[in-house]
Amino acid sequence: LVNELLDLGSIEAGIDTHREFVQLEGILRYTLDMLHGQIKSKRLKIQTEIAPKLPALRANPMRLRQVFDNVIGNAIKYSNANAEIQISLRAEGEQVILQVTDQGPGIPPDDQPHIFDKFYRGKNIGSNIAGSGLGLAIVKNIVESHQGRIWVESALDKGSSFFIVLP
Q1: Cβ-based burial of 146 (10 A; exposed 0-12, middle 13-18, buried ≥19)
Q2: Count of alpha carbons within 13 Å of 73, Cβ hemisphere only?
Q3: Taking the CB of the first residue and of the last residue of the chain, which one, N or C, has fewer CB atoms within 10 A?
Q4: Distance CA 98, CA 49 (A)
Q5: What is the pTM of this model?
């Protein structure tokens, strides 16, 4: 929790300005390798669709890894056993789009405007699922610090799709 607050503070303060050319496919593969144990224990099926010849982004690789870890980690955390998670990376014009779709409980419409707020957790999430409510706030700040956008589309009992657009 302390580390998450420190990360969020440095991102919000604009201190975190390191940039280099980054291939998102490599970050995605690293995240999936790191989360392999969780994926395997829940017997999840991960479908990836990665467009060929994705352009490199000028970005902070450590921060983008946090974005991938949090968004994909949430999809894993909120998915039931034997569910499917779809992850796609594609380019459209001068942008790269990451989409992560799960078959979890979905996010109630009243909660959707608040899920990127600090310490906010959906009303339909029980206390048996661990979390601080900071992960998506950190993700949103990282995405915005890279001049990107993030949003969610979700339906109760059907799942959620998170979209991240980076220039």
Answers
A1: buried
A2: 16
A3: N
A4: 10
A5: 0.87
